[in-house]
Amino acid sequence: MTRWLDDDEQRAWRAFLSATQLVNEALDRQLQRDAGMPHTYYMILVALSEAPERSMRMSELAARAQSSQSRLSHAVARLEERGWVRRARCSDDRRGNTAVLTEDGFAALAAAAPGHVEEVRRSLFDVLTPEQVRSLDEICTAVRNTLER
Amino acid sequence: MTRWLDDDEQRAWRAFLSATQLVNEALDRQLQRDAGMPHTYYMILVALSEAPERSMRMSELAARAQSSQSRLSHAVARLEERGWVRRARCSDDRRGNTAVLTEDGFAALAAAAPGHVEEVRRSLFDVLTPEQVRSLDEICTAVRNTLER
DNA sequence: CCCAAGTATATGAGAGTTCAACTAAAAAGT
DNA sequence: ACTTTTTAGTTGAACTCTCATATACTTGGG
């Protein structure tokens, strides 16, 4: 009954696993080494930096930064300890919490960004032709549209 | 100086991050829920199952299962507790250790495989055209060849 | 033959992630 | 109004991962 993978699919699947893991490891290593944060924290800072007032409700932030709520909660607690983010209770919905990027947090992000982009290029874009980039975009968009809640 | 990403690259990059994370989360959730193991453990069992004698040197196993040596060491320790793997000192090189897949381990893998493949299809292959699969293979192979040690 | 350098693996601490439970507040029923 | 059900967010425990370090063996020079 099981629809096993044929040879082509096997090859593609294993290549996919290797490539995505290698890219993620490269990102994490670079950010950890040069900026002292994991990639997940970086994504949180990016999401906040792009929001109006550099602040966002926790649940929306979780969605934008592709994090579970629990993960985000823990992460923001750490980021708060470093002084990169602070929390503020919502006025309209008293259950809600808002995360705000501080100046220090913004500065940390700005300092980390160039090295990060460089790593993104090195590990992905420099390897691909423009057409492959288009193709990758389509593929990933299709997957995202199917899987995301 | 920094070569920032242009709009197309930004879109592709974010799609890539979403898609790969969604796929990985789906895999991990399915395996954890239905087979009580993370995807990394599954990959270790697969690598062992494909090796002659269902056994392999730790360092080669790490390479095949795309794991760091440290991660593998910890993982095999856990797998050993469950009785899915056992270790045997090498005869020729007394520093070396060999991991061996036990019958129970093979059975656990066999039991986990169908659900896992189903999830792989649902989250990736069912979403893509055959041409996209080819394209993805090429892209990932290129990335892998560049990044892997 | 002995010592320095390299290789194979293990281990412990610290950090991040997950899952399930928990609190608190809003919304929906009745 | 009062209870039930959702929704927002946090928390603690268990687990995995990473990084640095430690151990044990092997190899390559002198």
Describe the structure.
Two copies of one chain form a homodimer. Chain A is mainly alpha-helical. Chain A is built from six helices and three strands, in the order ααβααββαα. In chain A, strands 1-3-2 form a three-stranded antiparallel β-sheet. In chain A, helix 1 packs antiparallel against helix 5 (103-123). The mean pLDDT of chain A is 97. Chains A and B meet through helix 1, helix 5 and helix 6 of A and helix 1, helix 5 and helix 6 of B.
Task: Summarize this structure as a short list of keywords or feature phrases.
6 helices; mainly alpha; DNA-binding; 149 residues; homodimer; 3-stranded antiparallel sheet; globular
Topology (elements, then pairings):
2 copies of one chain form a homodimer.
Chain A: H1 7-35, H2 39-50, E1 55-57, H3 58-64, H4 69-81, E2 85-89, E3 97-101, H5 103-123, H6 130-147
Antiparallel strand pairs in A: 1-3, 2-3
The structure holds a DNA duplex (30 and 30 nucleotides).
